[in-house]
């Protein structure tokens, strides 16, 4: 069910298409404009949300940054 949320065509245009730029700030190739922890909205829940959210999401995020360099 959580996986289905991330593929909801009412929320995501062409959800099955690999388009990572959809997470960027519009009109820019830098900066991520996405609420991953569900504080404003919940469009997908890679780390869960609310009280049981993954306590290591910040660590995971930092690792993505290092991997992306
Ligand atoms: C890309 C990396 C990761 C992803 C996508 C991820 C995702 C998740 C998700 C979806 C949950 C379940 C949240 C829920 O039940 O609502 C969770 C829980 C948890 N994660 Fe992660 N996680 C990642 C990395 C890590 C790392 C590196 C650690 C530890 C060093 C960690 C520790 C935990 C723990 C302890 C929980 C249980 C929290 C609880 O039940 O209160 N996670 N994670």
TrEMBL record:
Q: Which GO terms describe its cellular component?
A: membrane
Enumerate the UniProt keywords alphabetically: Heme, Iron, Membrane, Metal-binding, Monooxygenase, Oxidoreductase, Transmembrane, Transmembrane helix
Which InterPro entries has this protein been placed in?
A: Cyt_P450 (IPR001128), Cyt_P450_CS (IPR017972), Cyt_P450_E_grp-I (IPR002401), Cyt_P450_sf (IPR036396), Plant_metabolite_P450s (IPR051103)
Entry's localization field: Membrane
Q: How does it sit in the membrane?
A: Single-pass membrane protein
Give the highest taxon in the source lineage.
Eukaryota
Gene Ontology molecular function: any one: heme binding
| Binding, heme | 54
The protein's matches in SUPFAM superfamilies, at most eight in alphabetical order, are given as: Cytochrome P450 (SSF48264)
Pfam assignment, any one: p450
For activity, the cofactor(s) needed are: heme
Q: Report the sequence similarity comment from the record.
A: Belongs to the cytochrome P450 family.
The name this protein carries in UniProt is Cytochrome P450
Per the UniProt record, the source organism is: Solanum commersonii
């Amino acid at each position: 069910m959580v996986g289905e949320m991330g593929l909801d065509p009412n929320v995501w245009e062409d959800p099955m298409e690999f388009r990572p730029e959809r997470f960027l700030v519009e009109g820019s190739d830098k900066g991520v404009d996405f609420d991953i922890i569900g504080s404003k909205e919940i469009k997908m829940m890679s780390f869960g949300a609310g009280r049981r959210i993954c306590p290591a999401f910040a660590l995971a995020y930092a690792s993505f940054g290092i991997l992306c360099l």
